[in-house]
Protein 1
Amino acid sequence: EVHLVESGGGLVQSGGSLRLSCAASGFSFSDYSMSWVRQAPGKGLEWVSYISSGGGTIYYADSVKGRFTISRDNAKKSVKLQMNSLRDEDTAVYYCVREGGMDGWGQGTTVTVSS
Amino acid sequence: QAVLTQPSSLSASPGASASVTCTLRSGINVATYKIYWYQQKPGSPPQYLLRYKSDSDKHQGSGVPSRFSGSKDASANAGVLLISGVQSADEADYYCMIWHSNAVAFGGGTKVTVL
């Protein structure tokens, strides 16, 4: 069973940084691409970033390009999202998601950016 | 104009069928895309339902009832999620998704109410 656990969320001031982590288990992590998807309070889903199984292909949403960095460690079965220059509009629940088809989701971690 | 457009809400009676449409922006041909569907209930992360490109290229999520199925309406340039025999447990938000130009696009979500 796919099990994804996010951590690292919290309250941060505008302009600050946070690093989100996602620990994976229940599947062969190194065989799967991973993504981060966020959901602002009361809003819909917004894709943030994607990393291929080997880490060689990375994509970002325009809204976070140049501020966020995705990375992964296949030996540790983890994926991270470094978020810099945070803005109020980055406030959201951030989900770690398996595969390009997004067939497995974590419970999410909440990021609140206050000005 | 958004890449994917969904109706904000729809209602269905128990036992009836409900169709959630996902219209692709003009210039993006639905025939060439795999359309993914997700269900989200309040307070929970989204869950993968299914993927549909054609009758010969489709995938049902693990444990997802066959009452949920996908199709396309080429004349409307839209993907369709059909829920047959609607149950009260199907009351949720439904999102469509495609990969387009090395990025993920989500529809705005459709709130399905079972009356």
Protein 2
Amino acid sequence: QVQLVESGGGVVQPGGSLRLSCAASGFTFSSYGMHWVRQAPGKGLEWVAFIRYDGSNKYYADSVKGRFTISRDNSKNTLYLQMNSLRAEDTAVYYCAKDGMTTVMGWFDPWGQGTLVTVSS
Amino acid sequence: AIQLTQSPSSLSASVGDRVTITCRASQGISSALAWYQQKPGKAPKLLIYDASSLESGVPSRFSGSGSGTDFTLTISSLQPEDFATYYCQQFNSYPPLTFGGGTKVEIK
């Protein structure tokens, strides 16, 4: 079955960096766009970034543009999120999610279990 | 960015009740809308895509309707496992992809 497993979360000081990973299995990873979505404690869902199946197009939320970089390694079936210049407001559970469509952005299905990022001094 | 407004933000209902949640878009999004269910401490789960298409494995008591700016998620007969928070999400115009603020369904 399709499985997404995130890792790399933890506690980091403001201004610091962190790289999240998402290991995918159970589907042809290289055929689907992938997303990162986050959820601050007790809050709703916020889309963070998207990368096209071949890595040729990337989109970001304004709140992370210029600080976060999404990438993928199709040979390793792995999605990444490099997070730099972290702020307290970036504290959240970060989920990776497979896009439900193949050529354009659509819905999220399925989602990983999430990894918690805490930005605090 | 397209804004999605869900109502109500929370509701109390009993097992067996019919529950309706609405999602209004700030501009027309055709049928490019999905619904998710999230239980505490868990990742969201896709219920409905393309406004009314039921995801495989999702019980038929869940249904979605609407197009343009007004959408509805209906649970025909609420079950104990349905108590959760529900989110709508649009994918007509991006970036960004956007979510509604969520509707928490609680036990009466």
